[in-house]
Amino acid sequence: MFKGIGNIAAIWKQANEIGGQMEKLGENLKLRRTTGTSGGGMVEIELNGILEVLHCKIDPQLMSQGDGELLEDLLVAAMNQAIEKGKQLHAEALQELTGGMQLPGMREALGKLGGMGPRE
Predict the structure, then answer these.
(1) Interval 79-111: pLDDT, tens
(2) C-alpha angle 83/88/91, rounded to 5°?
(3) Residue 63 belongs to what domain range?
(4) For the chain, how many structural domains are there in total?
């Protein structure tokens, strides 16, 4: 009746270790940076590894043109590029954590670090 208790304890210990690794990973991702640009560098968006926007730079020349629609388009393009690079940081972190093994549920767990949810 109690044969499985040892296995449950081992699984629980392993889950706690993975949880600790995930916390460290989240802290590491907060320190990593990625940048998206558009308009030949006229718009630049910097994110950390958990996809928080840290900085937005817009060339003053672009601002003086008064073309709001162009500025909006360039901001969206730079943000999308930065997010894609941020997702790549997540994928690299996942590879580091798992040693390249594809473990069920790890993508979803890693996605929760940045509030991304599962990656496509």
Answers:
(1) 999 999 999 988 888 788 777 666 566 566 656
(2) 130
(3) 5-113
(4) 1
Single pTM value for the model: 0.68
Residue 17 within a domain: yes
Q: What is the CATH number of the domain that holds 104?
A: 3.30.1310.10
Return d(Cα 13, Cα 53) in angstroms, integer: 35
The three-point CA angle 16-98-34 to 5° equals 105
Residue with tokens 């798992």: 98
Structural tokens at position 103: 């473990």
